[in-house]
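Handout, section B. The chain below has 664 residues.
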Amino acid sequence: MRVERLRAPGSDLQDDLQRARRSFFLDGKDPGDLVPAVIARSWRRCADVPLPERGPQPDPMSGAELRGRREAQARLRRNARAELESLAESLATIDAIVLLADTQGLILDAAGSGSFMTKAQRVALMPGIVWSESDRGTNAIGTALIEAAPITVRGAQHYVAEHRILGCTAVPLRAPDQRLIGVLDVSAEPRHIHAQTIGMLRMAAQWVEHRWALDVPEPGIEVLRFARDPALLGTHREALLWVRDGVIVGANAGALRELGCGWAPMQGSLLDERFQGIPAVGGAVGILRPRDATGRTEFVAEWTRAPAARGRVRTAVSAPGVVDVVPAAAAQIADDELVPDPQRDRLLEHAARVVDAGMAVLIEGETGTGKELFARALHARSRRRRGPLVAVNCAGLPEGLIEAELFGYEAGAFTGARRRGQAGRVREADGGTLFLDEIGDMPLPLQARLLRVLQDRSVQPLGGRPQAVDFALVCATHRPLAALVAEGRFRADLYYRLQHFLVTLPALRTHPERDRRVDAWITRMLQMQGVHLHPAARDALLRHAWPGNWRQLTTTLRTACAIAGPGGTITREDLPADIRADGADGADRPDPAGAASPPAADATAPRPTPAGDGITDLRSVADAAIAAALASCNGNVSRAARTLGLHRSTLHRHLARGGSSQIP
C-alpha cells in the first residue's frame, strides 16, 4: 500500500513558482503555465529591458524634488488621502502598508504599519522611489500601470529576487475620461494578501475615483449622478457622467456598468440622444431612462455642480530654454506684466471666449510684441486657469528631439531614452493650456502628428499606447503662416485648424499711441525698481524706434536700472549708444526733484525714425544690453539673464555665437 506524502496548502503553487524561476532565470525558458499569464508577460517584458534579477537599491529622490512631484499630483493626493489612512487603519492587524503612486510609478505617500514599513524600506518600497516595471521589475504598482488592470504579485512572483519578502496588490485609478491617474497599492507579507485584503483595496480605489470625479477643475463640466436604488446616490456605487454643453465627456465605472457599454461608444455622444427624462440642472431628483433600453430600466438621477479644484496645480521640470510649465498662481499675474492697452484687452476678452469654446487661438506679431505674455494672460482668464500652462518654444527644440519632447516616449523606446520614459509636453498640458511658441518653425512631419492629436484628442507616445488628453491650444509666431502655407512649408489643414481666432499684436513703432504708451511703461518700470530718470534720458527713450518692440524696451530699462542702482538716477550715458544718439540734442541737466520727470509738452508728437534702425542696430542694442547686465551682475550669467528677462540658456546661446563683444 502506497502512502502519499501530505503537502501544505499552497505548496503545489510554490513548487510551480520555484520551477518557473529556475526555468526562466537559469535555463532561459518561458515559464509557461507555471505562473499566471500576467506574471509571465511581465517577466518577459523585464527580460527585454533588460533588468537584472538582483540589483542595488536606488536612492530616494531629494526632498525638494519629491515635494515638487507631490505638488504636481495635488488633486490625486487630496482625493486619496482619506482612503489611504482609512484602509491602513482597517489593515492594522496584518502589518500592512498602503501606498499611493502616480502614473510614472513614483510612490507619493505611504501609511500603515511602522514595523512593516521598516521592512519594506530595505527594498526601497517607500515614497520618493519609482516602482515602474522598467525600474523595479515585476511588481504590483508598475505592472498594474502596464496592464491597466488590478494585479496581485506575491513573493517570488516578483522579478527581482530581493522583493520576494513582499506580497502586493494594486489597483490602477482612472478618471471619468478613462485615463490613468495613479495607483493604490497594499503591501504586506505574502501570506496576508488574500481575497479580503484585495476586496478592501478595490473598494477604497472606487472611493478615490468617486471623489476625483466630483472634484472637477473646470466650471464648464456638470456631473450627472444616477442609480437604480436612491440609497446609492452619494456613495461610491453611484453612476457618474461628466457632461459639457450637453456632450458626455466622462463616465465612471458605475455608469459604464449600469449602461452596459464601454467608454469608446459613449465618448462624445449627446446626453439627450442617450437618455430621456433628464432632470433640469440645479433641479430636484428625477427619473432618467436610457432611450435604447429594453424593459423598464430607469434610474433616479440628479445633477451635481462640481466644485472647482482646490490647492496647487501641476508643475514640471522643463528643458532649459525650451519649456516652462507655469502653475496657476503664476499665470494669474500675467495681466500685471502687460503694458495697459484697451484694444489688446478687448482682443484678450474675445480670445478667452474662443478658448473656452474649445477652439484654438493663433497670435501673430513681431519679436518682442508680447505674444507669450498675451498667451499667459489668456490662460489666466480662461476656464482652464486652475490647470497648468505648458509653454513650448518650437524653434528652440532640436529637430531630432522635438517629437519625443512634445509627444513623450515609453521606457526603452529608443537608444538613449530615459529609463522611466517621458510624459511629453502635450500630456503635461492635460487639463490646462498648451502654448506652442514659434509654431511656424515646427517641422512638417511633426505638424502632421500635431494635427492628429487635435483631431483625436489623444496622444500616442513613442513605444506606447494612445492616451486621451484635454487641453486648450494657443499658438504664436512671428512668421506669416499664410505665406508659409502658400510656399508649402506649413500644412494648410493645420493652419486652418489653428486660426479659429487670429490675434495680431502691432509693432510698437506703428501703434497710434506709441509715445504715450512708452512713457507710461517707463514710469511704471521706474516705480517698480525704485529708480529715477533724467529728462535727457527719458527724451532719448521716447525718440527711439524700438525695433525689438516691448521686449527691447523692457530689457533696456532693466539694464539701466541695474546700472543706476536702487534710488539712483538713470542718465543718458547709462543707455546704449544707439539710444543715446536719439537724445543727442538734449543735455544732462540737474534734476532738482530727483525724480522721473514728465515728458516734454510735445512728447506726443511723432518722433523721427533713425535711418540706421534695422538688423544691425538691433544686434548692437542686444549686445549693449547684455554687456551692461553682465557688468552689473559681476559676470554672473544667471543673474544677468533674470535682469534681462531671459532664460539663462538663451543668454548662453547668444554668448556662444560670439555676441556681446563688450563683455568685460
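Note. The longest strand covers residues 180-188. Compare this with the example in section A.
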